[in-house]
């Protein structure tokens, strides 16, 4: 489903040139539930952003669902991302002036341009699935952190992506809420065969995944299948 070959990422900030990823190759199959772990600064977010079409590698190729994404221009890439990929951020990134309902609906208007009836049915289904139907008319400042993350999950899933990338999705949540969010993502993975790739420090996520990839200094030092 995803193949990455010989990825390299160099960040240039003024005079300083930092080679964060040197030569990273990786294959991810459909429906996998994967954690990317490693020390702070090891390149987890960088890898996730490249695989998730939010940033481009300096060198190397990425293919997602048979489409080579390296070489696509920005517009094409944004379109491809909208059709195929969901992204969940540590800080939720909800739009403050929109209601819960409108936040979830937003990608359908902006990216997929679906008719209103279809939008409504998808948003309501997801609101139900993440347990936020009763809060649908509130703005994000009127709900808790865990609830915001549930809205962010619904927003990431509303376009029916085959792949969801999540960067530290539980970092801002208390233990109990983090557990609920993980269970929710597992349920979605089971029911929709969605592929999930998490960058995380959270042991609670790590103990739940099928596969654990460890990065150190931008290199994969371990790639383990977990038996459960
Ligand atoms: N936009 C950027 N410009 C310049 N350097 C960057 C940029 N983003 C990341 N870096 C550098 O690249 C390295 C890897 O960063 P990255 O954010 O991928 O690490 P990480 O594993 O996600 O860390 P953390 O666990 O703290 O989130 C770090 O040294 C960081 O300073
Ligand atoms: Mg990070």
Automatic annotation (TrEMBL):
Record keywords, A-Z: ATP-binding, Nucleotide-binding, Transport
Any one GO MF annotation of this record: transmembrane transporter activity
ABC transporter domain segment(s): 5-228
UniProt KW Chloroplast keyword: no
ATP-binding listed as a keyword: yes
InterPro entries in the cross-refs: AAA+_ATPase (IPR003593), ABC_transporter-like_ATP-bd (IPR003439), ABC_transporter-like_CS (IPR017871), ABC_transpr_LolD-like (IPR015854), MacB-like_ATP-bd (IPR017911), P-loop_NTPase (IPR027417)
Entries under CDD domains matching the protein: ABC_MJ0796_LolCDE_FtsE
Protein name from the UniProt record: ABC transporter ATPase
Organism from which the protein derives: Sulfurospirillum halorespirans DSM 13726
Lineage, opening ranks: Bacteria, Pseudomonadati, Campylobacterota, Epsilonproteobacteria, Campylobacterales
